[in-house]
Amino acid sequence: MSMASSSSDEDARYVPSPIKKHKMGKAISEEVRIRIVNMYKTIIMNEPSISVRQIRKQISETLGVGERSIQTIITTYKETNTVAAPKQTRKKKSFRDVFNEFSKNAVRRHVHTIWFRREIPTVDKIHQAVSADDSLPSISRTNLFHLLKDLDFRYSKRSRNSAMTEKIEIVVWRRIYLENIQKYREKVRHIYFLDETWVNAGDCTSKTWVDTTVRSHRDAFLKGLSTGAVNPSGKGKRLIVLHIGSEDGFLPGGLLCFESKKNTSDYHDEMNGNT
């Protein structure tokens, strides 16, 4: 009984480990290719009548390489009498590798140049400007979109909240206004608000590219950049609407609405004392 037990333990000890299969898509090393060719030669020498299909199957089970790959390696060896090394796949450079800091800064300035012309920068306009610049690498429209994202540009809804990029005098006027309003409220005075707006015959895009790296008007000035797209004050034919109201609502008879007569880009040209 003890001898049988010892024999079974010995058999279990020498059980061969399973063959590790070659990972699909991974290049077969030159060492493995040589082993495949050597096994092919050995099998042919020992069993001349064996079929090619059986050879492929036997080598595949031994080395864990696919039969199709084995057939390709053997065929290449028969034709060239050499074992070809695996081709080194050349990694294609990404646009992020091609565009250095200088090139990225040039792209940023192209965007701000469009803003300086008081135009809305679109991907097509930016791509046209970048493509026309011989000092910059070529880039596709799709990759340019991703590059703008990398440069902290955001395609967002247009907003008239430009407090971060306003001039100093505008900020001062606002502070004076807030101080006066606070005084009137302390005196419990009834405050009326007068404002005007316009209704355009047409419309403009509600979203545009925004450079989030520009923090203030001074920051843009020091960098030689713009503060972004200028908010349109009006264009083409329009209606001008004025009204006055308070916390109690609009003042009866306070509505003034008329069609613009002047063909100017700013409806404020028609705002005067008579209006």
UniProtKB/TrEMBL annotation:
Residues that span the membrane, as ranges: none
Molecular-function GO terms, alphabetical: nucleic acid binding
Source taxon at top rank: Eukaryota
Coiled-coil annotated residue ranges, if any: none
Protein name: Uncharacterized protein
UniProt organism field: Sipha flava (yellow sugarcane aphid)
